[in-house]
Amino acid sequence: MDSASYPDPSRRLLITGATILAVLMVTLDGTIAVIALPHIQSALGASQDQIAWVLTSYLLAGAIATPLAGWLADHFGRVRVMALSVVGFTLSSVACGLAPTLEFLVFARVVQGFSGASLVPLSQVLLLDINPPEKQGPAIAAFGMGTLLGPMMGPILGGWLTEYVSWRSIFLVNAPVGVIAFLGLMIFAREVHLSRASPFDARGFAFVSIAIAAFQLMLDRGQMLDWFDSTEICIEATVAGLFAYIAVVHMLTARDPFIKPVIFKDRNFLLGTVLSAVTGIFLTGVIPIMTSMMQQLLGYPVLLAGLISTPRAIGNLLTIMVVGRLVSVIDARYLIFVGMALLVGSLSLLSSMSLEVSQARMGFVTFLQGCGSGLLFLPLTMIVFSTLPREHRNEGSTIFTLVRNLSGAAGISLIQAATIRDQAQVQSHLVERVRADNPVIAWSMPDFDVTNVPGVQTIMGEIGRQAAMVAYVNSYRAILILAVLAAPLALLMRKGSRGPEPIPAMHGE
């Protein structure tokens, strides 16, 4: 395709700006509400269990709607779907900010999640599509920074707005951003509708949606309800497993299934999706337990924990900017492998830490994580879509995004649950050995007396700290093994072209 077929540089820039604003708005809302939950709970008179639905409803609706984005884009046009999604997200954000009751707020959050689900997967394909191959690296780098800044800014902006304005302003702030993004897409992006004859597979969509909904509910409520000791969690796990099986059987046997199995015949897409899922588990899952370890175990104040986490964002931004140019001259598979190696290095440092770990070392670990994830994101996206047939690109993008999101949610829940349970087991194991007839106790503390309450409390406190550190280290080691096993997948991919073949329907001329 010649360069004249692409939008001119100024129009590409404007489309890119509108697209990134839309992505930033959606990713920001995934985290901005977390810090305001106590204020919302107080204002609307909700219980702890009820207020959790403000977050759960958003995540649940987004997970269910994400697989639908590809079909909608194929049948109604990608830009049109994105513009309508921005409208729905903006209006529901205003509704959240004006919500008089908790029930109305949860309903508005459902609409928010459903409306915003298509924006991230369709945006990355749109940016690939409007740029010639030599410009696609920087375009996806800009998209990567947009997806990074949202979650990073969410707690900071949410805390400031909640403290100095109102909790309602965390939702109302989306209104001007949404208006600008909508106008940018409608004015500067054009498309020629690509008609496809395939009908909507309602049964396939229902099977996939039920499986995803049950799985997301299980993850969101598992820790609160003590996982499989809860009847609700057992039911949700059973429903998720059963309908996932039915969805796979339907996909393989139906004439025109909702998810086309042919898409998984592309080796780069299959391996890239698996690699994205694995990295989502340990990359998304490690950050919360690192933050918890710094604040609760190492005693870092919130501000210090935030400062130590800053190198992660710096490393991510630096590598994303650099790799945008490197991806056109260096094989993407090697960049992905180097990114995995950096993440393995950070996990190796984490798995050898003790309670005496220095702040400098923690900062270096977060910097390595940022550099590793920055090297992974763009090359992985480029190589996956470089070999994927044009007719499957919308669907492929939604599956790629859905798998990454679900694996990230699973990583957070499973790693936190494993750490908590491991800590309890280690602590129980250590407590059993605190007795007067233990030679180690007799040697190290000859005056030990079980009737000395302050002395016993001091020992139990130290045991708790040591048990927590052992649990964190064990979790890091398990994730390290997973990362080492996943790294070679990058080298099994086929070498991609300089960029995916563009779809002529989506550019702005």
From TrEMBL:
Q: Which GO terms describe its cellular component?
A: plasma membrane
Q: Which CDD domains match?
A: MFS_LmrB_MDR_like
Q: Which organism is it from?
A: Novosphingobium malaysiense
Q: What SUPFAM superfamilies does this protein map onto?
A: MFS general substrate transporter
Domain Major facilitator superfamily (MFS) profile positions: 15-498
Q: Which UniProt keywords apply?
A: Cell membrane, Membrane, Transmembrane, Transmembrane helix, Transport
Instruction: Give TM segment ranges.
Output: 12-39, 51-72, 79-100, 140-161, 167-188, 200-218, 230-248, 269-290, 302-327, 334-355, 367-388, 475-493
Protein name per Swiss-Prot or TrEMBL: Major facilitator superfamily (MFS) profile domain-containing protein
Q: What is the lineage of its organism?
A: Bacteria, Pseudomonadati, Pseudomonadota, Alphaproteobacteria, Sphingomonadales
Gene Ontology molecular function terms on file: transmembrane transporter activity
Q: How does it sit in the membrane?
A: Multi-pass membrane protein
